[in-house]
Amino acid sequence: MIRKILLTAVAMALVVLAAPAPPALATTAFDLPDMGNPADSILSKSQAEQIGRSVLLRLRLDGQILEDPELDEFIDSIGHRLAAHAHEGNHEFTFFLVRDQVINAFALPGGYIGVNTGLILETRRESELAGVMAHEIAHVTQKHIARRAVAQGRSSMLAGAAILAAILMGIGGADPNVVQATAMSAQAYAVQESINYTRLNEYEADRVGLQILHDSEFDPNGMPDFFETMGKLSGSLGNRVPEFLLTHPVSSTRIAETRARAEQLPPTNVSESREYMLMRERLRVLTADNAEEMVLYYKEKLKNAPEDYPYLRYGYALSLIRVGRPQEAVKIFYELRESDDSVIAYHSGLGQALMAAAQPNESVIVFENALTLFPRNVPLTVRYAEALMWAQEYDRAHAILLDLFNTVPPTAAQIRLIANAAGGAGQQAEAHYYMSEYFLVNGNVVLAVEQLNLALAQPDLQPVQKARFEARRAELLPYLPKDHPEKSKDDTRDG
């Protein structure tokens, strides 16, 4: 599934590369992406951003992106902690979770780093996960994708696009025949065969990634430890080699060299968060096919555990919510919170359990108390808004989300949430405006313009609102399809 999505996304990206670049747009609550300048050389910064964003968009539209406020913040915090120590070049990174049990991670042009849920569940400590992410960050900072594209030559935009397509499909392990068809070039097959990261690229990503890992105060041995785990897993699976090993070949020599490099680094104060163990269990519960089996899994784990591990109780409580036993989960979360109220996940879990138990007012109180301890924490604020909406306090939910998103860029799911809050509060014009931004994030300019038209059609618009909606609509009209009726009107006005 992921491979097919990557192929489709590449095809979308190739169209974008050939299209005229839009001008910079005025700043709004949720800006349109800057699509770059196609006159730039192949794999310029703006074009790399286009490719990466296109793949992410395709993955999201096909339901492959796992969006969960707690997990999003967790993976983002690790990623940006590492990226802060990636000194080569001026790179911006976007980290996201892919809903796939296959053990893999990948770097896309433009600094987009995807981590499969299956890989996180296979790690044993945070430094192993951070080691994989540091390795992928190094592929970006060392410009391995761009360097391979340049090495293949770029006599034309089509040839360059074929190389880009092959790079992405090489990462996804796509069938060579599909690569050939998608790239629309006879040379695509040959490119795909040679474009996979070379051994030199992998060693360089190991070396640079280890330094990033060390400087970020993770244990650099986390990288060779995970490589070793993959090597053992490969042996136990026979011919079913983990996809991570198809795109990141691991040999005993490479493991030994990586471990030797890690041991040569100066000592550092390793800092691993408590959240790792909790978020790994959250991921395990949210991605499980059978919730009842997860309840049994945790009961067995807790029975055999040498002590009452908090992360196992956390996972058990989440699994109880999933099977419709929220009152039992409420009791566990209360106990966890009382044992340590510095853990945000316990507050969030308790509030969610109370909502599931049809106690919205109690849930609101839990989140209000939590936000006094952790002001503007994104997961807590989003969950607080959900609780307010459950309690039918839509005005308050809209206000706190607007305050948050004026500071922190929202995800697609969060834009839809604020649209629902505004609609519930009777602010239909704002709800349509937010839905316009939601469709933009998902790549649908036609529906985005339609939502703005609905916003402008609402009665009793304030002058400021009308000006804002009209300005946004004017920004979008040039990007409508040529045969769209409003595009024709816009062209006539320009003429």
Task: Please provide the count of β strands.
Answer: 3
Mean pLDDT equals: 81
Number of helices: 26
Low-confidence stretches: 3-41, 154-163, 169-174, 178-197, 237-241
Describe the largest sheet.
3 strands, mixed
SS content category: mainly alpha
Order of helices and strands: HHHEEEHHHHHHHHHHHHHHHHHHHHHHH
Helical coverage, percent range: 55-70%
Overall geometric form: globular
How much of the sequence lies in strands comes to under 5%
What is Rg? 24 Å
**Alpha carbon gap, first and last residue:** 46 Å
Main sheet strand line-up: 1-3-2
Distinctive features:
single chain, 495 residues, mainly alpha, three-stranded mixed sheet, 26 helices, 3 strands, globular, disordered N terminus
Any overview of this molecule?
The protein has helices spanning 2-18, 45-61, 69-83, 117-122, 126-141, 144-151, 157-172, 176-183, 188-195, 199-215, 222-237, 243-247, 252-264, 275-287, 291-304, 310-322, 326-339, 344-356, 360-373, 378-390, 394-405, 412-424, 428-441, 445-456, 463-476, 485-494; strands at 94-98, 105-108, 112-116. The chain is an all-alpha fold and 495 residues long. Among the domains are: 2-264, no CATH class; 427-495. A three-stranded mixed β-sheet has the order 1-3-2, sandwiched between helices. A hairpin with a 3-residue loop joins strand 2 and strand 3. The relative contact order is 0.08. The model is unreliable at 3-41, 154-163, 169-174, 178-197 and 237-241 (pLDDT under 50).
